[in-house]
Amino acid sequence: MVTSTQRRVVLLLLIIVFIGLFLRFNDLSSESIWVDEAFTYHYTTLGWNELFDILIYNDVHPPLFYILENSFTSVFGTAEFMMRFVPMLFGFLSVIMMFLFVKELYGSKVGLVSALFFSLSSVLIYYSQEAKMYSMFMFLFLFSLYFFVKFLKDASTKNALFLILGNGALLYTHVLSYVVITFEIFVYLVIHYVNRVHSIKWFGCRTNIRKFMLLLAGMILLYVPWIPIAFTQISWLLSTILSLKFMYKFGFDGFTYLLWFAIMCTIVFVITVFIVLRKKKVVDYISSCTMSNTVFILIFLGFLIFSVVYHDFLFSNSPLIRYSHFMLPLVYLFFARKMVDLKKLFVVLLFLYLLVSSFVLVQYYTTDIKEQWRETSEFVSADYSDGIMFNTAKHTWWAFNYYYDGTLPQLRLNEVSDKVLIPQFVSDKEMVHLILSHNYETHDFFVHEMSQHTLINVQEFVGITVYTYDINND
Q1: Domain range for residue 425?
Q2: Do 122 and 260 reside in the same domain of the chain?
Q3: Last residue of a domain, one of 279, 312, 338
Q4: Smaller CB count within 10 Å for the chain: N or C?
Q5: Looking at per-residue confidence, does 290 or 166 come out higher?
Q6: 116 and 232 housed in the same domain
Q7: Rounded CA gap, 361 and 123, in Å?
Q8: Of all residues in the chain, what percent carry a pLDDT higher than 90?
Q9: Does residue 457 lie within any of the structural domains?
Q10: Mean pLDDT within 9-19
Q11: Is residue 267 domain-shared with residue 394, that is, in the same domain?
Q12: 415 and 274 share a domain?
């Protein structure tokens, strides 16, 4: 029989889920696709053999998201709304998954507050409106945590199978899954270690190392077909892509040293944890450790102030945000858990969160964030010229041609050495556009190369600059 409390929980959850759905659905197609979404668009135009060839030899991402995206857009088309629909759907489902995960740990009340925080998060809304795999990964991340907690409480075959399936899907979605699964393995072994050394059920969790090893074997078995490909992708990612990005950022080749330093620090940390946990006093201290209300309130207010002051940074496509926003559910879990205990202050803090979230969401929906390739295409189409030159990354060229349906000849300038192509391209032209975006390697090199021609206009768009040259009047 359903009690009045359960009905109230269901009603509140439905309201929170509806809010999350509306916010993720709202303005889904209003902005242009940007650089990373251009990858997705390009991949949706490929056949299965071409897609897997690119993923294996020229990408670092597993295939699951692109399989779903290709299947969906092959039926419904590649309009911005349709390209972003699958991520939006996973973003909406993640609100429900957040509730279930937190409810399993701390009950319905904390689960509802956590789900509300999650539902209103502008950062999570942003990644739910991007045609990439991040919101799908978030859903699978929460799904994995939910069944990991259930497996800790009850190592049944059902919980083990769902955890295997969730982590298997994670592995086929993004390389960050290695971090998630490693974290789960570490937590499980720590709890098992404490249980065995001190003969206690730490945090009420039971461990069965034999079943856990079978669980790991099941995940590996699911991932076996992709392991050789993953090895190639990760090798390329570490040895080439990240090394080059590090060099462009800091001016020297030091990524390998940074990687080894991180590995050594991790090893030292793990060894230290297991050594320290041999002491019963440490285990008892961790079990009884609590944060004072004053410290928590200061942390919470600091989070709100940061959200207001740095909201532009939170909406940016900074790798720091992109690869760390998966920690937000744990932050919201921490906030909700402590706020529920504050009772009288709960309403005040919740009001402040709603106030700040409303302000940040207004900024999000009224500010153009993504690169304006639609606007750039319309500008080029409306302005007379004889040719278009691109000093951009390859995928930004795809973004431009997603919108551009004209017939002007196009020249792509990828490297400094491509300057030799310019004289022949402009020789029979009267006016040309030079489009710059993501030109991190060459910077303004091609602008200087074109300085011999008459610059008649510079048009700025979000993330894009268009230089227009009159070649006839040189």
Answers
A1: 373-470
A2: yes
A3: 279
A4: N
A5: 166
A6: yes
A7: 9
A8: 63
A9: yes
A10: 95
A11: no
A12: no
Residue 112 lies in a domain: yes
Which residue matches tokens 């050394």? Answer: 197
Asked if residue 99 belongs to a domain, the reply is yes
**Do residues 254 and 388 both lie within one domain?**
no
Q: Does residue 240 have a pLDDT over 80?
A: no
Q: pLDDT (tens digit, 9 = 90+) per residue, 405-416?
A: 888 899 999 888
Question: Of 256, 279, 302, which residue constitutes the final position of a domain?
Answer: 279
140 lies in the same domain as 269: yes
Task: Report the chain's mean pLDDT, rounded to a whole number.
Answer: 90
* pLDDT for residue 474: 55
pLDDT band at 441 (very low <50, low <70, confident <90, very high): confident
Using a pLDDT cut of 70, give the percent of the chain over it.
99
In the chain, the number of structural domains is 2
